[in-house]
What we know:
Layout: H1 4-25, E1 36-44, E2 47-49, E3 56-57, E4 63-65, E5 69-72, E6 77-82, E7 87-90, E8 95-104, E9 109-124, H2 127-131, E10 136-139, E11 144-146, E12 151-156
Amino acid sequence: MFKPARLMPLMLCLAFASLSAQAQTTPAAPVADAPRIGTFKQVEGETWVGPAGARQAVAPGAGVGVAQRVSTGATGSATITLKDGTVLTMGPNTTMDLSKFQFDATTQEGNFLLDLLQGSVRVVTGLLARINPDLFKVQTPTSVVGVRGTDFIVETQAGR
């Protein structure tokens, strides 16, 4: 004979497990006051958005905003595509700030500044660097890289 009371504990366990799984895979949203300037296309391992005390894990499809810090851990890597077509690929143990990004799709004008605090990033430039390379820069703790190519890698070590 069917007894619905026996199914209740099982149904509660399944509902709790489903909510737990959802909470662990929810991607981070960009900061509310920072408009979306790009999208995470690929994410592997430990990858976060936000400062160390308030960072959130990200998943492919999550947005990234201007002035956001993006970090990867020892097993992390990520690829971000910006609105002008620029592609940023971060290696493991990398921390960078997307300090400036402005792009007007109509006039194709704007600027870009990436602060690479530690680690490595491969940059395949989009429209901004092709139209006005002087307004596309990557800064490290010890230098500022002016762009004169369309595909390059910048690497820096923390504390140097």
